Amino acid sequence: MSDLLDYHIALNSLLETHQPLEGEEMVGLTQLGQRVLARDILVQHDVPAFDNSAMDGYAINGNACGSWQVVQRIAAGDVAGEGLQYGQAARIFTGAPIPAGTTAVLMQERVVLDAGGQSISYEPGEGRAVIQDGLNIRRQAEELRQGTTLLSRQQRITPAIIGLLSTQGYTEVACVPQVRVTVFSSGNELVPPGEPLTPGKIYDSNRQMISAMLRAEGYVVIDGGILPDELASTRQALERAARESDAIVCSGGVSVGEEDHLKTALEQVGELTQWRLLIKPGKPFTWGRIGDCRVFMLPGNPVSSLVTFRQLAFPAMQRMAGLPPEQARPWQLTARADFSRSKIDTRREFVRVMLSAGPDGVLRVKPMQQQGSNMLSGAAFATGLAEVPPGVPVEQDMELVVYPLTERF
Description:
This protein has eight helices and 26 strands. It is of the alpha/beta class. The strands form seven sheets. The chain has a six-stranded mixed beta sheet, with no helix packed on it.
């Protein structure tokens, strides 16, 4: 197996050789989810835009006064009234502008009003006898200052970042162009879900699975359909897809059988970069290019297709979408094995597991019962992939690298 490439070498190669798409496009706020910034975004307005109160209470002038006369009332959205003189106070609410002369804001829970509501005194809490200058005042630009960098290029847009852009008045920003991906399945045995299942046929699941994962991450998906086990048709379909796509993902037809034509077709119309990896499942994973279009060929077994897509093809496409290499890598954490296995494998294995936190708060993993590369039911309910290095038995409580498959587990 000396000609087989290790997973981590393959991943590093993919991250190094795949680059963000050239150019940029302006994208509106409502369409920004999962997109990646093409250039830095600057702060347009100070945050806060003016000195304001951090809580409901009273703005005062003169921290050492024993009492203050209430002379005005300022709510959020109001314009700050006349400045406060020494010994004066203003009833003020959270977010309201601070009047000139204010030395501190007293929280209303610490203030005692006189019978007529015209003056206040302060009841400090334990250890708070001295009123500090600037108490409970949010100063202008203490969070963000106009002209500084708000967001850096290569930043992936999340809902919170959309909110942040909104606070700055942005309605659109420049993003890396959206990656267009054509997704094929390959094999005469495949039929689309919904059609009659005749003898010798199976339903096509990989194309739907891969397409769903791509759409969830903000990619434009083009349904390439099912490729027949025929070289000329496969070659023509790849050439056609390469003209309208930034990337092509195929599953099946990439092994060494007489009816597996994808690898040969790619060599005829483009460039084959790598074929076969030292991993389990997913050894016959292939990648290359047709002109500027990147091509990823996944094994036909559903679990092998899932693993190689998530661990290899998708990180490469994350680079194409604009993410830096360190962010394009599959998210990983460590957990302790809640199982043991003496059998060793010469390949690096990605075991489908369930992640859970024990009473001690330590993450632990248990393998799913269905570990076959054709058993999608095991992978469908797994919450992670546990990486087992080649030639290493698994011992109870052994620390393993785990790649979560879900956000919650």
